Structures are given as structure tokens and as C-alpha cells.
Amino acid sequence: MTSHILAIDQGGHASRALVFDHAGRLVDAEAVPIATIRSADGQRVEHDAEALAASVQAAIDAVCARAAAAGWTIAAAGLATQRSSIACWHRGTGAAVAPVISWQDRRNAGWLRGLEPRRDWIRARTGLVLSPHYGASKLRWCLEELPAVRAGAGAGTLAMGPLASFLLARLLAGRPCFADPANASRTQLWDPARRDWDDELLALFGVPRNALPACVDSRHDFGFLDTPAGVVPLLVATGDQSAVPFAFGPLDPATAYVNAGTGAFVQRALHGAVPAAPRLLASVVWSDAQGVDYLAEGTVNGAGSALDWLAGREGTTVEALLHGMEADAGGTEPPLFLNGVGGLGSPFWVSDFDSRFVGAGTPAARALAVIESIAFLLRVNLDELRRLGPPLERLVLTGGLAASATFCRRLADLAGLPVWRSTETEATARGLARLVAGPAAHWDAGPGDLLRPHPDPALAARFERWRASMPAA
User: Fold this and answer.
1) Positive/negative CA dihedral, 43, 48, 54, 58
2) Domain limits of the chain?
3) 3-state DSSP call for residue 122?
4) Separation CA 439–CA 231 (nearest Å)
5) Interval 111-166: pLDDT, tens
6) DSSP letter at 302?
7) Contacts within 8 Å (CB) and 24+ apart, 288-295
8) Residue 377: per-residue pLDDT
9) 9: closest CA among 193, 247, 177, 221?
10) For 190, which of 184, 250, 286, 448 could close a Cys bridge (C-beta 3.0–4.6 Å)?
11) 221 exposure class (CB count in 10 Å sphere: 0-12, 13-18, 19+)
């Protein structure tokens, strides 16, 4: 028998279970789609919690049944989820008492504006800007608006917190109630310096401590999965973006890690102390008995979601837009796109931003403008990251947009850095599996190719015009 690792990756479109062998090779995977429920105005974004939990269990059961048939032993497992999504459940039974509210949800933005006078204090305490994308205002909304949540709080049976904590309670024997640092931090109720819930923040948001999971390290004996391949210990829980850098080896302070999917994230690792990055986010990326690694992170909400937004406006598909864009390569100069799809993220932090084009163009030109806007936003975040730590020497790029040669070329040219473009389509799962395997796992970085930067005066000029337009907008 051969030992393998199970990586459970719960994402925005599907729940996935993936099996890696001892050398880091992906040998099997199962995906179960999930539905997303959106309000007409886009403010509310949620998932049916019971259906989501069932999708994760179904993916695990399917892939582990095949592992058992193949004679594989699953040595250990890990879980990665969307970091800012939250859930509410019955602590004893694990039954959901509210929908899973997505990180994209902004339903309590109006209430949150009342905390603007405390914005700087919250930023200093949590490493996060005040935003409805994080969990605290969502948890407050559930306590105020959902009778089942209020009743559970009154009876002392309520558990609430990160989506990962809900799934741990549903998947593991004994219904444990734990929160790892990557997911706890995105509630905006967690202090990264102390690595625990903060009583002042809990009072400010009106969230009871006794309803929250116990805070533990990223690597912890979370409990045991009962699978068709036998009982499997779950040793790691983390966020999807937090797992990605580990897919390629130990953290490198000279590397910026870019993951460009529905949203785009650019991260660099720093060891020893919470980074002072007032225009970015700061969080714990990993903690275990040996120490703590922190991340400074820039976030672009409108990446793949901005292409979805454009496809809806054009009455077409993202694939058709990108095909037309590539066919029109070298054509007319694109307009500028001021990209606030999903809210304008770092370093501007404007939650209500009117996305718009500056100038005219064909659908292909507008698609290129959206692609360039993502690269422009990543560039201004890279400028912030360059102020921290040693000089950056390279970018590592993953995610769906890594398949776009146009996006990769513009990102390399704008950053002035070589871009190693991973062709690993499962970076979150591979990083998670590598964390489960531990430092003794000597996995290679996987397949990819290197793009070196070249001067592009026309692109640089558009970037300067875009940058000048953003403060005025």
C-alpha cells in the first residue's frame, strides 16, 4: 500500500477533493458543483449551507472510495476554504441555522458605515481595512435578522464563525469547534499579534465570544474524517489564498505570489512580526509549533468577476470576449477601465465605486481594457509591497488568468519583473497537500514557464493615464 494525502478545497463554484501521492503528484480528484444565490442588486451573495456541506462530503466520499479500490492509504488530510465566508450552526448537532454568507456579500455595508470613526483603530488592531467583505458585519447581521441564530445565541447552542469552522464541525467525528488563523483573521474579530479573538472588537460588533470557535494553529490535530478509505486525521486548515504560495516550495521573501481567479491577490511573506503596511492587508499565513509567518497582501476584487461583468453587459461569454481580444491583438488602442467590480480593493479601499470605461472601443478593445485594469491594480499593489522586505526578484502567477498570454505579458512588463507562470491548475490544493505533508516533503515546483519583462511604452503611458484617473474617480 502507498500513503497519499487528501486535500479538500471548498471554492466559490465547487467543492473538491484531491489526492496527491508522496511525490506531490495529483493522482485523483472529484468536484461537486455548488449553487450561488445572488440578489438582483448584487449586495447579497450566499450558498445553501446544508447543500454546501453535502457537496464537500460527496467529493470526499467519491475520491476516497476510488482510493480504497486502488489500495491507497490516505495518511492525512487538510481543508482550505474561502476565507471571508461565514456560517452559523448548532454546536451540538452541526446543523446549519443560516445560509453560508459569501465573502462577496455586502448586505450590512450600511450598518458598517457607522463604524467609520473607528476605521483606523480597527485597521491597527486587525491588519484589515473596515469592509463589508469580512465576516464581522455578516455575523452581526445574522444575530440581528435571523430568528434561529438569535434563538441559538439565547440557548447557548449557537456556533458561528468562518466557513472552515462549520465544515470542520460537519466533517469530523465529535463535532469539534476550531478556527485556524487564516480564516479567523478574515472575520475582522481576530488580533494577529495575539492570535486570538479580541474582546474589544467582539463588543464593537456585538458578537458573543462563547459562540465563536476556539483559536488554534494552522497545523493542529483537528480531528478525524470517516471515509471509504478509512479513518483519516485532518492536520491542516487554512484559507484558499493562504495555501497557494506553499504549492511551489518554502516561502520566499523575494517573491511576490499572484493568484488571479475570480479576484486577484498579490502576497509577500514576512517572518516574525505583523507587517506595517497601512494600505494593504496583513495576516498570519501559517502558524505551527515552530513559529509564525505573516503576509502582506493586496487584493483586486474585480479580476475574473470583472470579465463576467463585461460579458453580461455585452451579452456574450467570457470565452468569446477573450477569443475576440486575442484575435484583435495589435489592433486599436484600448480605452481605460476604472475597475471597481466587487468594490475597489487595495490600496484605494472604496467599497462603492462606479466602474466605467474612459474612451470608446470595440468589445475586444473593452475586454483588453479590463485585462489591463487587473494588471494596473496589481502593479500599484506591487509598488506597496516593494516597500517591505528585500527587493522583489520575481512574480509567481497562478489562477485562471494565468492561461491568458496577454494578461501575463502585461503583468510582466508593468512590474518589470520576470513572471514564472505556473501551469499547475490546482495551486490551492497542491499547497494545502504540501503543508499537510510537512517540511520533510521535497516536492518540486511543478510545471510552468518564465516570461521576462520588456519595455512597452504604449502600455506604460496607458498605466500613467489610468493612475492619474483613479484619485479623481
Assistant:
1) negative
2) 2-239, 249-473
3) helix
4) 23
5) 999 999 999 999 999 989 998 989 999 999 999 999 999 999 999 999 999 999 99
6) -
7) 288/217, 288/218, 288/219, 289/217, 289/219, 292/195, 293/251, 293/269, 294/192, 294/269, 294/270, 295/242, 295/267, 295/268, 295/269, 295/270
8) 98
9) 247
10) 184
11) exposed
Cα 40 → chain centroid? 24
Cα-based distances in Å from 229 to 6, 57, 75, 391: 11, 13, 10, 46
Instruction: Compute how many other C-beta atoms are within 10 angstroms of the C-beta atom of residue 253.
Output: 16
Residue 110 DSSP one-character state: H
Using alpha carbons, select from 219, 158, 182 the residue that is nearest to residue 82: 182
Strand partners, 81: 10, 239
Strands 37-38 and 45-47, bridge-based pairing: antiparallel
Same fold, 2-239 and 249-473: yes
What does residue 85 show for φ and ψ, rounded to 5 degrees? -80, 145
Tell me: the pLDDT tens digits for 174-188?
A: 999 999 999 999 999
Q: How many CB atoms lie within 10 A of CB 416?
A: 13
Q: Is 2-239 in CATH node 3.30.1360.70?
A: no
Residue 88, beta-bridge partner list = 160
pTM: 0.87
Closest by CA to 325, choosing from 361, 364, 375, is: 364
CB atoms within 10 A of CB 74: 23
Cell triple for residue 459? Answer: 502600455
Which three cell numbers mark 467? 493612475
* CA 119 – CA 321 distance, rounded (Å): 39
Per-residue b or e along 355-384, where b marks 16 or more CB atoms closer than 10 Å to that residue's CB: bebeeebebbbbbbbbbbbbbbbbbbbbeb
Taking Cα atoms as reference points, which of 10, 1, 42, 66 lies closest to residue 432? 10
